[in-house]
Write a structure and sequence with these properties.
By secondary structure, this protein is mainly alpha-helical. 57% of the residues lie in helices and 5% in strands. It has helices spanning 10-19, 26-49, 67-83, 100-116, and strands spanning 54-56, 62-64. It has a two-stranded antiparallel sheet with strand order 1-2.
Amino acid sequence: MPQGLVKGGKGQRLWKDLTSYIEFTDVELRILENACYTEDRIAKERRAIGDHLTVKGSQGQIVAHPLLVNLRQDEAHFAALMKQIDIPDEQEGMDSGESRSSMMRSVAQSRWGKAYGAD
């Protein structure tokens, strides 16, 4: 388990979920570690933003929450990292034409989306 991940946080869960049944290369482990730190950062940003998608600007005008930019960047970074990791399918001998990693990515995105209240 990488040092510095939030105890009991999204990053630790992602690390445990994937490393419990997949043997990664050294390079993939470094990519996964980066993805776990990014996942923790995304969770912190979402908590900080909460329901406040807008805030008052310096002139009293309504502007987008400043962390929304970071959140979008971190989510894109997380998705890019996860695409680099070959995650095998849990079921052997699937007949589907969809690749294992894209199928697992879909499962992970659905799972993390539900955890954050997104569809």
